[in-house]
Design a protein that fits this description.
- The complex is a heterodimer of chains A (104) and B (163).
- Chain A has five helices and two strands, in the order E-E-H-H-H-H-H.
- Chain A is mostly helical and 104 residues long.
- A two-stranded antiparallel ribbon of chain A has the order 1-2.
- The relative contact order of chain A is 0.18.
- The longest helix of chain A is centred in the middle third of the chain and has 17 residues, at 43-59.
- The model of chain A has no long low-confidence stretch (mean pLDDT 95).
- Chain A has helices at 27-36, 43-59, 65-70, 76-82, 87-94; strands spanning 2-6, 9-13.
- With 163 residues, chain B is an alpha/beta fold.
- Chain B has two domains: 1-55 and 106-163, DsrEFH-like (Hypothetical Protein Ychn, Chain: A, 3-Layer(aba) Sandwich); 57-104, no CATH class.
- Chain B has helices at 17-32, 79-82, 87-101, 107-116, 125-130, 148-154; strands at 7-12, 36-41, 68-69, 75-76, 120-124, 144-146, 159-162.
- In chain B, the strands form two sheets. A five-stranded parallel sheet of chain B has the order 6-5-2-1-7. In chain B, strands 3-4 form a two-stranded antiparallel sheet.
- In chain B, helix 1 runs parallel beside helix 4.
- Chain B is globular and about 45 Å long.
- Chain B starts with 6 loop residues before the first strand and ends with a strand.
- The chains are: A mainly alpha (104), B alpha/beta (163).
Chain lengths: 104, 163
Protein backbone atom coordinates (compact mmCIF):
# COMPACT_ATOMS: atom_id res chain seq x y z
CA UNK A 1 0.00 0.00 0.00
CA UNK A 2 1.27 3.43 -0.86
CA UNK A 3 0.03 6.93 -1.43
CA UNK A 4 -0.15 8.90 -4.59
CA UNK A 5 -0.70 12.55 -5.44
CA UNK A 6 -3.25 12.97 -8.19
CA UNK A 7 -5.58 15.75 -9.34
CA UNK A 8 -4.64 17.87 -6.33
CA UNK A 9 -5.47 15.21 -3.77
CA UNK A 10 -3.80 12.28 -2.01
CA UNK A 11 -5.15 8.77 -2.58
CA UNK A 12 -4.21 5.35 -1.15
CA UNK A 13 -3.36 2.83 -3.86
CA UNK A 14 -2.21 -0.81 -3.94
CA UNK A 15 0.82 -2.07 -5.89
CA UNK A 16 -1.22 -2.34 -9.07
CA UNK A 17 -2.46 1.23 -8.79
CA UNK A 18 -6.06 0.49 -7.74
CA UNK A 19 -7.54 2.85 -5.17
CA UNK A 20 -8.01 1.17 -1.80
CA UNK A 21 -10.31 3.81 -0.32
CA UNK A 22 -13.18 4.77 -2.58
CA UNK A 23 -14.02 7.77 -0.38
CA UNK A 24 -10.90 9.46 -1.78
CA UNK A 25 -12.20 9.14 -5.35
CA UNK A 26 -13.85 11.95 -7.30
CA UNK A 27 -14.45 12.77 -10.96
CA UNK A 28 -11.22 14.75 -11.29
CA UNK A 29 -9.27 11.81 -9.87
CA UNK A 30 -10.98 9.57 -12.43
CA UNK A 31 -10.01 11.86 -15.30
CA UNK A 32 -6.39 11.94 -14.08
CA UNK A 33 -6.25 8.14 -13.63
CA UNK A 34 -7.67 7.74 -17.14
CA UNK A 35 -5.08 10.11 -18.57
CA UNK A 36 -2.33 7.94 -17.04
CA UNK A 37 -3.77 5.03 -19.04
CA UNK A 38 -3.88 7.15 -22.18
CA UNK A 39 -7.65 7.58 -22.10
CA UNK A 40 -9.49 10.91 -22.42
CA UNK A 41 -12.83 10.47 -20.66
CA UNK A 42 -15.94 11.22 -22.72
CA UNK A 43 -19.64 10.92 -22.00
CA UNK A 44 -19.55 7.31 -23.28
CA UNK A 45 -16.80 6.47 -20.78
CA UNK A 46 -18.83 8.03 -17.98
CA UNK A 47 -21.82 5.88 -18.84
CA UNK A 48 -19.62 2.83 -18.11
CA UNK A 49 -18.02 4.33 -15.00
CA UNK A 50 -21.38 5.41 -13.58
CA UNK A 51 -22.78 1.92 -14.13
CA UNK A 52 -19.81 0.32 -12.34
CA UNK A 53 -20.34 2.79 -9.49
CA UNK A 54 -24.07 2.03 -9.18
CA UNK A 55 -23.57 -1.73 -9.52
CA UNK A 56 -20.70 -1.90 -7.04
CA UNK A 57 -22.76 -0.02 -4.46
CA UNK A 58 -25.58 -2.53 -4.99
CA UNK A 59 -23.63 -5.81 -5.32
CA UNK A 60 -20.26 -5.14 -3.73
CA UNK A 61 -18.30 -6.35 -6.77
CA UNK A 62 -17.19 -4.92 -10.10
CA UNK A 63 -19.67 -6.16 -12.76
CA UNK A 64 -18.44 -8.69 -15.34
CA UNK A 65 -18.83 -8.39 -19.09
CA UNK A 66 -22.23 -10.09 -19.23
CA UNK A 67 -23.67 -7.86 -16.52
CA UNK A 68 -22.31 -4.83 -18.36
CA UNK A 69 -24.19 -6.08 -21.45
CA UNK A 70 -27.46 -7.18 -19.87
CA UNK A 71 -27.92 -4.82 -16.95
CA UNK A 72 -25.80 -1.85 -17.95
CA UNK A 73 -26.85 -1.94 -21.61
CA UNK A 74 -23.21 -1.52 -22.66
CA UNK A 75 -22.08 -3.48 -25.72
CA UNK A 76 -18.94 -5.64 -25.57
CA UNK A 77 -17.59 -3.93 -28.69
CA UNK A 78 -18.06 -0.45 -27.23
CA UNK A 79 -16.40 -1.42 -23.97
CA UNK A 80 -13.31 -2.67 -25.80
CA UNK A 81 -13.26 0.47 -27.95
CA UNK A 82 -13.53 2.81 -24.94
CA UNK A 83 -11.04 0.98 -22.71
CA UNK A 84 -8.69 -0.92 -25.03
CA UNK A 85 -6.59 -3.89 -23.85
CA UNK A 86 -8.32 -4.88 -20.67
CA UNK A 87 -11.67 -3.05 -20.60
CA UNK A 88 -13.08 -4.00 -17.21
CA UNK A 89 -9.73 -3.86 -15.42
CA UNK A 90 -9.10 -0.36 -16.71
CA UNK A 91 -12.65 0.85 -16.16
CA UNK A 92 -12.61 -0.47 -12.57
CA UNK A 93 -9.30 1.27 -11.87
CA UNK A 94 -10.58 4.59 -13.23
CA UNK A 95 -13.85 4.19 -11.33
CA UNK A 96 -11.85 3.83 -8.12
CA UNK A 97 -12.82 0.23 -7.42
CA UNK A 98 -10.75 -2.96 -6.90
CA UNK A 99 -9.39 -5.13 -9.70
CA UNK A 100 -12.19 -7.48 -10.88
CA UNK A 101 -11.89 -10.89 -9.23
CA UNK A 102 -14.10 -12.88 -11.62
CA UNK A 103 -13.04 -15.17 -14.53
CA UNK A 104 -15.70 -13.97 -16.95
CA UNK B 1 10.01 -12.12 -14.37
CA UNK B 2 9.57 -13.24 -17.97
CA UNK B 3 7.70 -11.33 -20.65
CA UNK B 4 3.94 -10.91 -20.50
CA UNK B 5 1.91 -13.28 -22.70
CA UNK B 6 0.69 -11.25 -25.69
CA UNK B 7 -1.06 -13.87 -27.82
CA UNK B 8 -2.74 -17.27 -27.35
CA UNK B 9 -4.11 -19.88 -29.74
CA UNK B 10 -6.57 -22.17 -28.01
CA UNK B 11 -7.59 -25.51 -29.55
CA UNK B 12 -10.96 -26.95 -28.53
CA UNK B 13 -11.06 -30.66 -29.43
CA UNK B 14 -13.95 -32.08 -27.37
CA UNK B 15 -17.68 -31.54 -27.75
CA UNK B 16 -18.93 -32.00 -24.19
CA UNK B 17 -19.81 -29.06 -21.97
CA UNK B 18 -16.60 -29.49 -20.00
CA UNK B 19 -14.74 -29.89 -23.29
CA UNK B 20 -15.92 -26.60 -24.77
CA UNK B 21 -16.27 -24.13 -21.88
CA UNK B 22 -12.65 -24.05 -20.68
CA UNK B 23 -11.48 -22.90 -24.10
CA UNK B 24 -14.17 -20.21 -24.26
CA UNK B 25 -13.39 -18.95 -20.77
CA UNK B 26 -9.68 -18.85 -21.51
CA UNK B 27 -10.16 -17.03 -24.82
CA UNK B 28 -12.51 -14.46 -23.29
CA UNK B 29 -10.21 -14.07 -20.29
CA UNK B 30 -7.30 -13.47 -22.63
CA UNK B 31 -9.13 -10.64 -24.39
CA UNK B 32 -10.09 -9.12 -21.04
CA UNK B 33 -6.36 -8.93 -20.24
CA UNK B 34 -5.57 -7.34 -23.58
CA UNK B 35 -4.12 -10.60 -24.95
CA UNK B 36 -4.76 -11.45 -28.60
CA UNK B 37 -6.84 -14.67 -28.82
CA UNK B 38 -7.49 -17.26 -31.53
CA UNK B 39 -9.92 -20.14 -30.99
CA UNK B 40 -9.53 -23.22 -33.18
CA UNK B 41 -12.29 -25.85 -33.08
CA UNK B 42 -11.46 -29.37 -34.19
CA UNK B 43 -13.02 -32.87 -34.09
CA UNK B 44 -16.03 -33.01 -31.78
CA UNK B 45 -15.08 -29.59 -30.44
CA UNK B 46 -16.56 -28.34 -33.71
CA UNK B 47 -20.02 -28.78 -32.22
CA UNK B 48 -19.27 -25.67 -30.19
CA UNK B 49 -19.60 -23.55 -33.35
CA UNK B 50 -22.31 -25.47 -35.26
CA UNK B 51 -25.32 -23.16 -35.12
CA UNK B 52 -27.97 -25.85 -34.78
CA UNK B 53 -26.09 -27.76 -32.12
CA UNK B 54 -24.07 -25.36 -29.99
CA UNK B 55 -27.00 -24.42 -27.77
CA UNK B 56 -27.42 -28.11 -26.86
CA UNK B 57 -23.97 -28.94 -25.54
CA UNK B 58 -24.19 -31.53 -22.75
CA UNK B 59 -22.11 -32.87 -19.92
CA UNK B 60 -21.17 -36.58 -20.02
CA UNK B 61 -22.64 -38.59 -17.14
CA UNK B 62 -21.04 -41.84 -18.38
CA UNK B 63 -17.29 -42.32 -18.40
CA UNK B 64 -16.84 -39.40 -16.04
CA UNK B 65 -15.44 -40.80 -12.76
CA UNK B 66 -15.38 -37.36 -11.14
CA UNK B 67 -19.16 -36.91 -11.57
CA UNK B 68 -20.92 -36.67 -8.21
CA UNK B 69 -24.58 -36.22 -7.18
CA UNK B 70 -26.46 -34.22 -6.10
CA UNK B 71 -23.59 -31.75 -6.00
CA UNK B 72 -19.81 -31.56 -6.38
CA UNK B 73 -19.25 -33.00 -2.88
CA UNK B 74 -21.97 -35.68 -3.11
CA UNK B 75 -21.73 -39.38 -3.97
CA UNK B 76 -19.99 -40.72 -7.07
CA UNK B 77 -22.59 -41.37 -9.79
CA UNK B 78 -22.43 -45.07 -10.80
CA UNK B 79 -21.89 -45.50 -14.55
CA UNK B 80 -25.07 -47.56 -14.90
CA UNK B 81 -27.18 -44.72 -13.43
CA UNK B 82 -25.42 -42.19 -15.60
CA UNK B 83 -26.65 -44.16 -18.61
CA UNK B 84 -30.34 -43.67 -17.71
CA UNK B 85 -32.03 -41.59 -20.46
CA UNK B 86 -32.30 -37.95 -19.44
CA UNK B 87 -29.46 -38.16 -16.92
CA UNK B 88 -27.07 -36.17 -19.06
CA UNK B 89 -29.74 -33.54 -19.81
CA UNK B 90 -30.52 -33.28 -16.09
CA UNK B 91 -26.88 -32.88 -15.07
CA UNK B 92 -26.44 -30.32 -17.85
CA UNK B 93 -29.41 -28.24 -16.72
CA UNK B 94 -28.10 -28.26 -13.13
CA UNK B 95 -24.71 -27.08 -14.31
CA UNK B 96 -26.18 -24.45 -16.64
CA UNK B 97 -28.07 -23.00 -13.70
CA UNK B 98 -24.87 -22.69 -11.68
CA UNK B 99 -23.10 -21.06 -14.62
CA UNK B 100 -25.96 -18.63 -15.13
CA UNK B 101 -25.55 -17.52 -11.51
CA UNK B 102 -21.90 -16.72 -12.25
CA UNK B 103 -22.88 -14.86 -15.43
CA UNK B 104 -21.13 -17.41 -17.65
CA UNK B 105 -23.14 -17.10 -20.89
CA UNK B 106 -24.60 -19.95 -22.98
CA UNK B 107 -22.23 -21.10 -25.78
CA UNK B 108 -23.76 -19.04 -28.66
CA UNK B 109 -23.77 -15.84 -26.58
CA UNK B 110 -20.24 -16.56 -25.32
CA UNK B 111 -18.96 -16.87 -28.90
CA UNK B 112 -20.57 -13.54 -29.74
CA UNK B 113 -18.91 -11.95 -26.70
CA UNK B 114 -15.49 -13.31 -27.66
CA UNK B 115 -15.96 -12.26 -31.28
CA UNK B 116 -17.08 -8.74 -30.29
CA UNK B 117 -14.04 -8.57 -28.02
CA UNK B 118 -11.83 -9.07 -31.05
CA UNK B 119 -11.13 -12.80 -30.56
CA UNK B 120 -10.88 -14.84 -33.78
CA UNK B 121 -12.81 -18.07 -34.26
CA UNK B 122 -11.72 -20.81 -36.66
CA UNK B 123 -12.84 -24.29 -37.73
CA UNK B 124 -10.50 -27.15 -38.61
CA UNK B 125 -10.60 -28.07 -42.31
CA UNK B 126 -9.86 -31.78 -41.84
CA UNK B 127 -12.87 -32.16 -39.52
CA UNK B 128 -15.11 -29.99 -41.70
CA UNK B 129 -14.36 -32.30 -44.65
CA UNK B 130 -14.73 -35.45 -42.57
CA UNK B 131 -18.12 -34.35 -41.16
CA UNK B 132 -19.28 -33.02 -44.60
CA UNK B 133 -19.92 -29.51 -43.28
CA UNK B 134 -20.17 -26.18 -45.11
CA UNK B 135 -19.87 -22.54 -44.02
CA UNK B 136 -23.68 -22.48 -43.64
CA UNK B 137 -23.51 -24.96 -40.78
CA UNK B 138 -21.47 -22.59 -38.64
CA UNK B 139 -22.60 -19.70 -36.47
CA UNK B 140 -21.92 -16.22 -37.83
CA UNK B 141 -18.91 -15.60 -35.57
CA UNK B 142 -16.74 -18.19 -37.34
CA UNK B 143 -14.10 -16.25 -39.26
CA UNK B 144 -12.69 -19.00 -41.47
CA UNK B 145 -12.09 -22.71 -42.03
CA UNK B 146 -8.36 -23.29 -41.64
CA UNK B 147 -5.86 -25.98 -42.52
CA UNK B 148 -3.45 -26.95 -39.79
CA UNK B 149 -0.70 -25.14 -41.70
CA UNK B 150 -2.68 -21.90 -41.71
CA UNK B 151 -3.36 -22.37 -38.01
CA UNK B 152 0.37 -22.51 -37.26
CA UNK B 153 0.96 -19.53 -39.50
CA UNK B 154 -1.51 -17.31 -37.66
CA UNK B 155 -0.27 -18.64 -34.32
CA UNK B 156 3.19 -17.19 -34.89
CA UNK B 157 4.40 -15.78 -31.58
CA UNK B 158 1.44 -17.26 -29.68
CA UNK B 159 1.22 -19.72 -26.83
CA UNK B 160 -0.68 -22.74 -28.14
CA UNK B 161 -3.08 -24.31 -25.67
CA UNK B 162 -4.80 -27.65 -26.38
CA UNK B 163 -8.01 -28.40 -24.52
Amino acid sequence: MSQKQIAGTTVDVNVEGYLTNHAQWNRDVAAALAKELGIELTEAHWKVLDFIDRDFKEKGVVPGMRRMNKVGGILTKDLYALFPDGPIKKAALIAGYPKPASCV
Amino acid sequence: MSDKISKVSIIVSRGSLDGIYPGLIMANGARMEGIEANLFFTFFGLYGILKNYNSKIKIATVGNPAMRVPNAKGFPLPTILGAIPGMSAFATSMMNKEMEKLDIPPVPEFLEMIHDAGGKIYACKATVDMFHLTQDDFCAQVDKVLTVGEFYELSAGAQIIFT
